[in-house]
UniProtKB/TrEMBL annotation:
Enzyme class: transferase
Annotated family: Belongs to the DDAH family.
Coiled-coil residue windows: none
Pfam (any one): DDAH_eukar
Family annotation (SUPFAM superfamilies): Pentein
EC number: 2.6.1.13
Presence of the UniProt keyword Transferase in the record: yes
Active site residues according to the UniProt entry: H185, C281
Protein name: Ornithine--oxo-acid transaminase
Length: 291
C-alpha cells in the first residue's frame, strides 16, 4: 500500500526517474505541531501529533514527490507550525506569485517568510489585500490545460479576492462555494487531474458550484469521491503527468484512478490530517525552478 522509502542518493535509482519540469515547494516539519484550532480537524488534536512520526511521513512524501518533480525547500520558522502546508503560501504562475493574506491571525505570521523566499528566488511578488483574505493554492487551482482558475470561497478565501487573480493572470476564474466546514479549502475536495479529469467530493459544494464544475468537465471526466475517502483527504492529491500521490484511499477509488491510466502512490499522512491537511497541502506547485 504505502510507498517504500526510495534512496534518492542511489545513482541507479536516480537513472530510472523520468526527467520532469515540475517543481514543488515544501517546508520540512521540524517545527510542525497542532497549536490552535482553526478548522474542525484540529479540534481535539492540539499537541496530539507526534513530531517524529510527522517527520517520517513527510520524508516519505518528499521522496515520492522527488521521483516526479524537483523539490525546493523553505525553512520552517518559530511560531508558524502550519508553515509545512506550503500550498497556502500563495499562488504562482509564469514567475508571478500572489502571496496569501490568511483569514486567521494564527497563520498571518507566515506571510513575510514566504514573501522573502519568493523574492530571494527571483519571483515577481504581488501582495493580496489583508481586507480580502486569500489562501493561495489551497483555494485556487488551475485546470491542467491552464485555461481556467477554479477558486474556492466561504471558510477562508473571500469571493472579492478572486477579481485580483483574474487581473494578475488575465485568466477566466470560476468561483466555487465551499459549504462543508470539513472541506474548508478547495484542495481538500477538488483536484483537477491530467487528461482533463477532475476528482471531487460533490457534497462539499452548493448546487450552483456543482453546475459550474459539470459545465467545464463532461460526465466521463468526473471522478466522484465518496465521503469515506473524502474524509481521508483523497481529493488532496498531487498529480504530475500520470502519477498521483495522496494519503491512503479505498481500493475502489484506487482502481477507478488506475482504470483511467494513473499510477497511484499512497503515502500515510495521519499526523498531518490532525491539522486538517494531507499530500497536496504539503506542496506548492511552481511553474519554474527557483533561480
Ligand atoms: N491547519 C492548516 C489550516 O487550517 C491546514 C492547512 C491545509 N492546507 C490546505 N492547502 N488545505 O490552515
Amino acid at each position: 500500500m504505502s510507498t517504500q522509502p526510495i534512496d534518492i542518493t542511489n545513482p541507479a535509482i536516480l537513472a530510472t526517474i523520468p526527467s520532469t519540469s515540475a517543481t514543488f515547494l515544501m517546508c520540512p516539519p521540524r517545527l510542525y505541531d497542532v497549536n490552535y484550532v482553526i478548522n474542525p480537524w484540529m479540534a481535539g488534536n492540539v499537541h496530539a501529533s507526534s513530531r517524529t512520526r510527522a517527520a517520517e511521513q513527510w520524508q516519505r512524501l518528499y521522496e515520492a514527490v522527488s521521483t516526479i518533480a524537483d523539490v525546493q525547500l523553505v525553512e520552517p520558522q518559530p511560531g508558524s507550525p502550519d508553515m509545512v502546508f506550503t500550498a497556502n503560501a500563495g499562488l504562482e504562475r509564469n514567475g508571478t506569485v500572489a502571496i496569501s493574506s490568511f483569514f486567521h491571525p494564527e497563520r498571518q505570521g507566515e506571510e513575510p517568510h514566504f514573501r522573502r523566499w519568493f523574492e530571494q528566488a527571483g519571483y515577481k511578488v504581488m501582495d493580496t489585500p489583508r481586507a480580502t483574505p486569500f489562501e493561495g493554492e489551497g483555494d485556487a487551482l488551475f485546470s491542467t490545460d491552464g485555461t481556467r482558475l477554479f477558486v474556492g470561497y466561504g471558510p477562508r478565501t473571500v469571493p472579492s479576492s478572486h477579481q485580483a487573480l483574474r487581473k494578475i493572470w488575465g485568466i477566466e476564474v470560476t468561483s466555487l462555494h465551499l459549504i462543508d466546514p470539513r472541506f474548508y479549502h478547495l484542495d481538500t475536495c477538488f483536484a483537477p487531474l491530467e487528461g482533463g479529469y477532475v476528482m471531487y467530493f460533490p457534497e462539499a459544494f452548493d448546487r450552483a458550484s456543482l453546475d459550474k464544475i459539470e459545465a467545464f468537465y463532461p460526465l466521463e471526466k468526473r471522478i466522484i469521491v465518496a465521503e469515506s475517502d473524502a474524509v481521508c483527504f483523497a481529493c488532496n492529491a498531487i498529480n504530475v503527468d500520470r502519477t498521483i500521490i495522496l494519503n491512503n484511499i479505498s481500493s475502489d477509488l484506487r482502481s477507478q484512478l488506475e482504470s483511467r491510466g494513473f499510477d497511484v502512490i499512497e503515502v500515510t499522512l495521519t499526523e498531518f490530517l490532525k491539522a486538517g491537511g494531507a499530500a497536496k497541502c504539503l506542496v506548492m506547485k511552481l511553474s519554474h525552478a527557483a533561480l
